[in-house]
Structure formats: C-alpha cells, structure tokens
Amino acid sequence: MATLELSMQDETTAAPVRRRRKLGLLFWIASVWLAIILTLAILAPILPIQNPVDMDMLERRAAFSGEHWLGTDGLGRDEFARLIFGARVSLTVGLIAPMIGLTLGGALGLLAGYFRGRFETVVVGSMDVLLAFPPLIFALAVVAYLGQSIPNLTVILGVLGVPAFMRVARAATLTLARREFVIAAEALGASHARILLRELLPNVILPLLAFFLLGVAVTIVVEGALSFLGLGVPPPVASWGSMIGEGRDSLDVAPRLAFLPAAALFLTVLAFNLVGDTMRALTDPRQGAL
Amino acid sequence: MLTFVVRRLLAILPVLLAVSLLTFLIASLLPGDLAYVILGDQATPENVAALRRDMGLDQPLWWRYLSWLGHVLQGDLGRSFRTGQTVLQAVAERIPVSLQLMLMAECIGLAIGVPVAIACAARAGGAFDRFITGSAFAMLSMPSFLVAILLIYLFAVELHWLPATGYVPFTEEPLNNLRFFVLPALTLALAEWPGIMRVLRSDMIATLQEDYIALAKAKGLKPARILFVHALKPSSLTLVTVTGINIGRLLGGTLIVETIFALPGIGRLLVGAIYTRDLVILQGVVLLVACGFVIVNFIVDMLYAVLDPRIRHGHA
Amino acid sequence: MSALLTIEDVAVELPTPRGNLRAVDHVDLSLEAGRTLGIVGESGCGKTMLSRAVLQLLPKKARLSGRVMFDGEDLVRLDAERLRRLRGRDLAVVFQDPMTSLNPVLTIGTQLMETIQEHLELDAPAAKKRSIELLAAVGIPAPEQRLAQYPHQCSGGMRQRIAIAIALSCEPKLLIADEPTTALDVTIQAQILDLLAREQRRRHMAMIIITHDLGVVAGRADEVAVMYAGRVVERAPTQALFKRMHMPYTEALLAAIPKLETAPHTPLPAISGRPPDPTRPLKGCSFAPRCRYAAGRCHEAKPELKGAEMPDHLYACFHPIHMAEGVGA
Q: Which one of C96, C101, C162, C178 would you mutate to disrupt binding with B, by most B Cβ within 10 Å of its Cβ?
C-alpha cells in the first residue's frame, strides 16, 4: 500500500528511470478522468441524479436498470449517486489534507534548506521522529481520540504528510541554493526574504506541486483504508472507502457493490499517480530552473 | 567494525527518546478525561477524584512522563485496566501472528519482485519489461484493502479454495495455520512487490552500464554469472534498504489486513484498544511499534555495511 | 604469413538525436601474432570505439559493418557462445581505469579465479595457485594476501597490475590495452608499460596499445596507426613514423609533446581548433581546417590511405610532408 514516504523510495534509486513518453496518451487520459471526476464531485448537488440517501427498501441490491444506472445498495440507495457523492468526500479530504502538508512542509523544508545549521538539524530531526510512527497507527489513534469527523481526519492526514513535503522542499532548496542566480542575488544585497520568495520559491514550488499530486493519491488511499474499517469518515457520510467496506458484506450476492467504488478509487488514484509522476519527471530541479 | 556499530547505536538513542515522548504526549494530551472513560457509568465525582489520585493523573505532565518512562525502562509498560493483562503479555501473545504475516508477505513479495526485476533489467526496454513496469505502476495505485477484497472474492467466495477469515496457531495445526495466512500474506505481498521490483530493476540497469560489467563480458564469463554475481551483488544494497524499510513499514501496515482477515495480531490489538479507549495498551503498543521501526532501520544500516565492504572500511 | 587479426573496412555508426554519428569510418588494419600495434589519436577520434568493435562490445544502438577476422574467424558473424569462449581466453582486454573496471564488491581472488575456472576448467585449488603466480608475475607483493582483498584496498598502479594479471590469466593470443596508463601517475606509467612489454615478449602475444600519447608507443610498438576523426590517417613501422612522418597531423602531435631538451618557458605548440563534429562529416579532409599546409584540394575531397615510397608506410594526405625528392602528391 502506498505510503507517505514515496519520495524516499525514489531518491534511493541509483539511476531513476525516466518515463520515455513525456506527455503521452496515458497522461491525457488520466487528466481527462480527473477532470470528469472533479467536475462531477463539485457539481454533485445540482446534477440531475437521484438523491444518495433516499432508501428504497423494495429495491435493495437491485441490478442495473433505467432508473438506477448502477443499481442500488443494501439499503436501496442509488449507487451511481452514492458514487458521485462519495467522490465529493474522498476528494475533499484527498485534496485538502496534502495542501496542509504542502504549505507547512514546504515552508519548513524551504527554510531548513536555506538557513541550514541548527534550525535545519532540529527540523529534520523532528520530522524523522514523526516518520518513525507508522502513519496508519498514528492516524487511527489520534482520530479515535479526537473523534471521527471530516475536519479531524483532514488535519491529521495533512500533518502526517508534512515530513514528506519537507524533504522534497529541502532537497530542492539545497540543489538550487548553490545556483548562480541565488548567489547573484546575494551579491546584489538582496534580503533573505527576497531571495526566498523571489528566487527560490518559484523554483521549489514546481517539484512540490508534482509531489502534491502524488500526495493526493496517497491520501485518498489512506482515507479509504480508514473509512473501510469504519474508522475514517463518520457514518452516515459515505466516501468510496466506506462504500467498499459496506460492499464487503454483500460479496457473495452483489459483488458490484464493493467493486464499483473500488474501481472508482483505483482509477482515480492511478490517474493522480500518473499525472503526478509525469509532472515530477518534468520538474526535477536537477535539470534546470526558471 | 565494532566502533562503527557502536557509533550508530548511540545515534539512535535520542530518536528513541523523542519517540517515547511523542507517544506519551499523544496519549495524554488528547481530550476526554481518562478517569471518566474508565469508570463509565460509575463515575461519581468522588470516584473520579479517587481514581485520578490512584493513577497519578493529578500530577503534572512532566512528572507523569518521567514516571511512565521510568517504568518502561524497567520493563513495566503498564497493565490494561480493561483486560487486566500487562502490555507485554498482550503484545507477546500477538506478536507471533503479526511477525508471521510480515515475514510471509515480505518473502512472497521478494519471490515475485526479485526474479521479475532481474528479468526486466536483463532485457531493459523489451516487451516484458514494459509490461511489468506498467503493471507495477498500476499495482502501486491499488491499496491493500482493495487487493484483499479482490482476493477474498476470487478465492473465498467464488472458488472456495481458501478461507476468508480465521486463525489457528502454527504450533497446533501447521497446515491449517498456513491456509489461513495465504490470503492475507498474498494481499500484502501483491502490494509490496512493485516497490521491490522497481528499485532493484532501476539499480541493476544502472549497474549493468558500469565498466566492470563490460570487463566481465570481455572476460567471456557466462551471462548468468555476470547477471547474478557481478550485477546483482552491488545492486542488492538498495534492495536490502527497501526490504528493511518495508518490513519496518509493515509493522504498522499489517493492521488493515489483520482486521480484514480477523487475525489476532498487534494491529488488531491496537484497533481494539482504540475502540475501548484502553490508553495503557495504546500507549505501550505504539511505543513498541515505533521503536521497533527505528531498530529495524538500524539493522538495515548494519546490513548495508556487510554488503558493501567499502562502507565497512570507511570508504565510498 | 596470415595475420592474427585483420580489421577489414570496419565502420561503426551510432544514431544520436542530432544525427548519425560516424565513430569509425572504414578502417583497415592488421596485426600479426607476437607483434605490437599502437593506435594513437586524440579523444573522440574513434580509437576506443574501434577496440570495442573488435571485442564486439559495442553499445546496443551501434551499427557495425565490415569484418573482423581473428584467428581465421569473423568475430562480427560469430555466434554468441563461440564469441564468449573466445573472450577472456584468446582475446583479452585491459581498460583505462582499474577503479571502475574491477568490481568493487568482489574480492580480487574471485575476479581472477573466475576467468581461469571458466576457460581453463581448473578446480579451485589449482586456480588459486595459478592466480598467486600471476599476481607475482605482474609484480604484486604478498600475492596470497591480495586474493582476499578488495580493489579499493589497493593503489591505482596495483589495481592496473591486477587487471593485467586477469587479462593474461588464460594466455591470450591478443591483448588490447585501451589507454592502460592514462588514469595512473606518471611515475607508475613507465612501470606498467614495461610490464606489458615484458609479458608480451615472454608469452609471444600480439598486443594493441591504444593511447592519445605518442610517447607511450615510442619504443614499445612495432607499428603505429594514427587515427583522426574515425579514420586511419597514417600507418607505419614505429621507427619510420617517428623519423619521417608524412601526415601534418602526426607532425603536430609529436610537436605537442613536451620535450626535455626544449628551453624552459617555450610555448607548447598545441594544435589549434577542435576535431570535427562527427555527426556532420566534412566533404574534404577532416584535418584540413586545422592543418598548416591545407590547400585547395584538401577541402574538396578525402585523401585515401596509401603508400608511396615505402609499401608499409601509408598516409592519407594530398600534401604529405618530409617526402623524399620527387615523390608525393
């Protein structure tokens, strides 16, 4: 299962294998899928689809039909609508949590890589301690005590992502801080703030954004796992993960109830991974700068 | 060599200390008065106050931390007020299950990943390579619980070959025990092999470009020997690191699989402790798992030195 | 007497994003058993590619044409298994940098013995004994202890000696030494070259020394071929070449070597300009842009390699220098 330590794995490889087709067909298919899913999720309340919470006890676990495109679930609710509303939840957490990691982790990494010294040691050290905790256990423990709610879940997953973003930002900063344009700015008497904001940030933000997309993929997975166990989004709110968990009970009679949200989850995570990976290959700071 | 080991050992001590502090803080600073939680409907103001005094909850935070840490260093991680078991007892009961799962999963993962990686590196860019690399990428997007659902559906529900849940200790019925472990271990392994394969393949492709491989070919050695002796050994460094990191990660990652397949391991112990608000178990188990992770990383560092003699002698 | 090695009309092309790169441009060479050929040229002239072509170790994308006859067989058309058995046994090579050509995670003993055991089918104790003898022969002190050591524990000169020992281990008929001393200290260079020469005489082995330094082949090669931009531009027995070279390029190369007799602070006559871009071959002689004597025809057509006054002294030039009276273009 993908973890929040994606960056570590690929940084240890001796010669990262570059994807030959930079913006190939797969990239565009993935982008289109993401665009569709995001649009559906955002427009969900105003779309002409069934109400996802309307229970029709006479039509439980119904097969595909004209009225219910993807059938109904165990409580007679329209599956298609549930999928779309589930997308809303999964994507909300999936997008906002990494943003926390991006801003906090990115800032910490940028500052640590620029100022070096004691500050850097403290930052890196504390991130290492945070990384010593298996993320799932950490998330479970805190969510269980703080109570299950979407904001809590989002914040915790966001915090768990901070070390990874910090590493990416710091690595990028370390590479760039020695480049001529930074030294030139220093020589011209630019202040720290100016160098950080004007010279370094625009260049560091690119790999960070690429990593952000990968972080979204990971977050959707972790939220999915937690919700699958019933320990993520609070019932009756449904995300793809919790739908899969519910569908598990009907595997023998209606496997589609588990596989439809599973497919949606898989395709979306795959799409984010594809796009993120392509972006990362393109924005590696070792290859150039703005 | 000894100085190397000792130096590294000393370096991880502060990390372990920080881990213990963080664990304690998580458990203690969270809202919800513990005494109320424990007493439940027997919570009268007097009982609560008495219990708080008893458990030392009225003491300042730093005192409680040091007191707890002191106990921990003497081997006393506390006793669950739900089950009455000590943390160590509970953990000792469950560890074999989790360990068996982790080891089986990693072994199967390696058994799939390593040969595939070597085959891909030997004919990099070929049809097989591109197919495998694509599959690996897709697999990395498939979380373990999805794989679990698929496998359960396929093998338990449709084919009825393997059981979906259940457990029996290895010492009692070895064959049956393995039957219960196949699906969970396979689930984890299918999630592990892409990471292993990618890293080894990448490293081997780089190694195969090296001059010493060209010389090995020029010496007329058999291709198999060049691949497995000359190329695999230098590349195995990153593989060992990744395997070590994986095993460490699996310490917490078995949680989902244990819960899905109803295996009585550490993960389920933790989930149970969360449900019942068993603070003592929670604190103790998280501490053990986190420290275990740090120690596994340390062992990986040591293995590194064994595999690359240059590190042993302070070079490279 | 038929030659041990004959390179016939060999050309090597590499497709690159910028166009087709002609690394080796129709080269003909031959070498008899027991003799030494020196191939000299600056970086990028194609000498290393040529050696890789002989060894059949070209990069996957390279396209090779021509024939490489070794001991009566065409190496280019030989099947993989036959080639593998030839390599290391009859055909051996020493690369430039022993730090990268020796495997860092295998012991010296392993790297020596595996060749012996593969080709000579000796058992471990016999292979070990032979390895120790080889190490002693190349001048390595305490050879028995060395077997268990790793390359990084030895000095640069010692590593190259080990590489030579590995190359000599199965009594090869031909040894190709690709810049064997370039990565070593000047003080060690002479030792290594002497070692190679001595072993060659002792084993009656044919040898090719590839180098950018004319000084290296002086006195150690029987014949010298000078390469420029993928072609052989002059070829002659060593003495003849040094006494009277005919190619302006060879003269320039020799002049660029610092000599002991020159007065201090004399500027070194370096060759101005750079070799041509191999993806854009020139119409005329490749050296013309940098040649002092270049005139009209030099920019129009490529001179062919041929001999005039002496059949074994070939040159490719329209205006050869140091010719005897009445001979020449």
A: C101
